[in-house]
From TrEMBL:
Transmembrane segments: 6-28
Domain of life: Eukaryota
Entry keywords, A to Z: Heme, Iron, Membrane, Metal-binding, Monooxygenase, Oxidoreductase, Transmembrane, Transmembrane helix
Protein species of origin: Vitis vinifera
GO molecular function: heme binding; iron ion binding; monooxygenase activity; oxidoreductase activity; oxidoreductase activity, acting on paired donors, with incorporation or reduction of molecular oxygen
Entry binding sites for heme: C435
Similarity comment: family membership: Belongs to the cytochrome P450 family.
Cofactor(s) listed: heme
SUPFAM superfamilies named in the record: Cytochrome P450
Protein name as it appears in the record: (S)-N-methylcoclaurine 3'-hydroxylase isozyme 2
Length: 493
């Protein structure tokens, strides 16, 4: 046998051995290199998964499910996978350690922008954190939320709040839907920052009702969110309804946009966001998209926080008394100014305590896994929806003493801030997707709240006692429409 034949025999036998070993190697790979499992969660039913388990207050139900399944759990909603983080440690993993991968946005099919050009120019609904999204955040920060921009709008915010006070004063003794009026004020603060004009009226319906309607449609789950294959069928007709509602919102500033495009020099006494957008040659569609998103993200969140703060103050007269006392000592008889806010620690603590118990976005906005990743020893597959249940974290007895009581004092000697670094307390989120409007929210909410508490006495109508305002989360919104929470403001003499 010559050496060539021996070499050929050896290679042939190595090949045969390798072939025989292959199944074993594959089995070993399967056993040892198997990706970690999905996060634990309730058993999913065939086809519907866990859809029926969420109910009408998903954050409340998810909080109780997390007690059974742990701080990182997964549920199936139709064909979609939902992952929920419910502890500060899990929130830190999602919003800091894996922020790059998990900062995609999951957008409901009824809200999703079909035009790819607009999708690239979206802020809250941008599916990825693209350069366009970064640029948009930078423009909004520079023009609206930076220290300089915030200072340039102080007088505007104070004026709008005084208009609310003047209107309320004309209603002495009457039953008033105060929170509708607060919503009007917040919308007008925003619309003046965008266009230097009011878009809402205390007496008439208009923009605010269209925004309610659009928000309601956006929050209503759509079957194609759970079964994307049904997307083209538009079973609820919700896309048509959202399009109508959005069309009516856009119509409220269409004329202004046209006018301002024609003007060479806008002539407004202070710069607004529209001026910045026109300078960088944004088209109408692009401007509409961003302003729409800023309205939807900024108006309801601030109003709900004020509404809950007032509700908690009525429920807790001692806290109301202490807050009034602080306001009287620091402000005296004059109207509240933004320059007073840094000197009102108890007011700031009341706002923080309200955001702990009643975060207006209890699950943040839905994030999306842009790639498959491993978190806390579990796999989160690409395109899963990822939520952080800050409502559950705000009421967790492992994190807070006596978590259900409204005790602003807990924030007085504490260094806890809502700026996205303390993961037990993130009402504005954290990481790349943190709320860009935090600076504005953190000024307009205490300004309006302090004004309402300082200038008015709050009492309930005779036929309602404080037990009746023992509301469940999100019921406030329902109350507003079906059985509005009517508080009687009495102007203090
Ligand atoms: C009390 C007031 C507010 C609270 C509690 C709040 C809270 C939040 C939260 C929790 C998020 C989602 C963060 C995430 O998904 O991780 C968010 C996003 C957002 N907020 Fe706010 N917000 C408030 C006021 C405002 C205001 C006044 C504006 C602007 C006018 C605003 C504009 C936005 C936008 C555009 C986003 C989407 C950001 C993105 O996806 O990149 N918010 N906010």
């Amino acid at each position: 046998m010559d050496s060539d034949t021996v070499t050929a025999d050896i290679s042939l036998s190595s090949f045969v051995y390798a072939l025989l070993l292959l199944p074993f190697l594959l089995i070993l790979k399967h056993i040892f290199l198997k990706p970690p499992p999905l996060p634990p969660g309730p058993y999913p039913w065939p086809i519907i998964g866990n859809l029926l388990q969420l109910g009408k207050n998903p954050h409340v139900k998810l909080a109780s499910l997390a007690k059974l399944h742990g701080p990182l759990m997964s549920l199936r909603l139709g064909t979609q996978l939902m992952v929920v983080a419910s502890s500060p440690a899990a929130a830190l993993e999602v919003l800091k350690t894996h922020d790059r991968t998990l900062s995609g946005r999951y957008v409901s099919s009824s809200l999703s922008v079909k035009d790819p050009k607009l999708n690239h120019l979206s802020l809250a609904f941008a599916k990825e954190c693209t350069n366009n999204w970064k640029n948009l955040r930078t423009i909004c920060r520079t023009e609206m939320f930076s220290g300089k921009a915030m200072e340039s709008h102080v007088e505007l915010r104070e004026r709008k709040v005084m208009e609310l006070v003047e209107f309320l004063a004309t209603k002495e003794g009457e039953v008033v839907k105060v929170m509708d009026l607060v919503f009007t004020t917040i919308c007008n603060i925003l619309s003046n920052t965008f266009f230097s004009m009011d878009l809402c009226d205390f007496e008439r319906e208009g923009l605010k009702d269209f925004i309610y309607r659009a928000a309601e449609l956006g929050a209503t789950p759509n079957l194609s969110d759970f079964y994307p294959i049904l997307d083209g069928l538009n079973l609820h007709g919700s896309k048509k309804k959202s399009k109508e509602a959005l069309g009516r919102i856009l119509a409220t500033w269409e004329g202004t946009l046209k006018e301002r495009r024609k003007q060479k020099n806008p002539g407004s006494s202070h710069r607004d966001l529209l001026e910045a957008f026109l300078e960088i040659r944004f088209e109408d569609d692009q401007i509409n998209q961003v302003i729409l998103e800023l309205f939807s993200a900024g108006a309801d969140t601030s109003t709900l926080t004020i509404e809950w703060a007032i509700t908690q103050l009525i429920r807790n007269p001692d806290v109301m008394y202490k807050l009034r006392d602080e306001l009287t000592k620091i402000i005296g008889e004059s109207p509240v100014r933004e320059s007073h806010l840094p000197h009102l620690p108890y007011l700031q603590a009341c706002v923080k305590e309200t955001l702990r118990l009643h975060p207006p976005a209890p699950l943040l906005l839905p994030h999306r896994a842009m790639e498959t990743c491993q978190v806390m020893g579990y796999t989160i597959p690409k395109d899963s929806q990822v939520f952080v249940n800050i409502w559950a974290m705000g009421r967790d007895p492992k994190v807070w003493d006596d978590p259900l009581s409204f005790t602003p004092e807990r924030f007085l000697d504490s260094k806890l801030e809502f700026k996205g670094n303390d993961f037990e307390y993130i009402p504005f989120g954290a990481g790349r997707r943190i709320c860009p409007g935090m600076a504005l929210g953190a000024r307009q909410v205490p300004l309006v709240l302090a004004t309402l508490v300082h200038l008015f006495d709050w009492s309930l109508p005779d036929n309602m006692d404080s037990a009746q305002i023992d509301m469940e989360e999100w019921l406030v919104i329902t109350l507003r429409k079906e059985n509005p929470l009517r508080l009687v403001p009495k102007v203090r003499k």
